[in-house]
Amino acid sequence: MHGSYLVVRRYPYEEPFHMQLEFSVSNGLFSGTTDIYCNVGDLKEIGNRLKSFPTRLGDEFRYEYGSEDPARRHYRYFLLRAYTIDNAGHCALQVKMNNNTREPHEGTCTLSIKAEAAALNRLGSLFLTFSQLEHLEFHWNLEDQELFEYHESP
Fold it and tell me: Contact at 8 Å (CB) between 118 and 89?
């Protein structure tokens, strides 16, 4: 894949309550991949918030998993943040990942993708469809999206 994208892979884990998700993201210059274990309801929360984003100027949505604080000893830290970048309502999607390990195995990534509100709304709809647990993977970019009932080759 070229340019900006978000790929989410689902690995069934104690469903329909918990799941393992792998996020791969790129803004065309930087990229990163991490996995988290979350509640199935988190997909619906993300989907509902992004589907109608933004609701007003200065709007921001944050989905956070874990903590970067070493004292809390979380498996991972993951942030998916949608925010407006100006008074005209232009938006961006920020992703921050930290594998919470020490040198020489540490890994962090923070990047943003400038996106129109309509693209973020499509991403929200994609998360809502994905929350039905009928697909194992989806690909989203600024112009298109695709759902898969299986995992695509990397």
Answer: no
